[in-house]
């Protein structure tokens, strides 16, 4: 995924499915470096991870 698409998803009120390593995630924020984002798994676990945005896939 590219930087502009991450920004669009973050500003959208729509439920846009994004996957990281095959797991469905929510994007919490774009990090200041512009290359990584903080995400967490959809579901009961709220564990957050920092991932490279190019590794995110929109379904």
UniProtKB/TrEMBL annotation:
Q: Where in the cell is it found?
A: Spore core
Work out whether the entry's keyword set contains Iron: no
Keyword Oxidoreductase set for record: no
Q: Which organism is it from?
A: Neobacillus cucumis
Q: Which Pfam families match?
A: SspH
A GO biological process held by the record? asexual sporulation
Keywords, A to Z? Answer: Sporulation
Question: What is the recorded name of this protein?
Answer: H-type small acid-soluble spore protein
Q: Specify the domain of life of the species encoding this protein.
A: Bacteria
- The primary site where this protein sits is other
Per the record, its GO cellular-component terms are: endospore-forming forespore
Family from the record: Belongs to the SspH family.
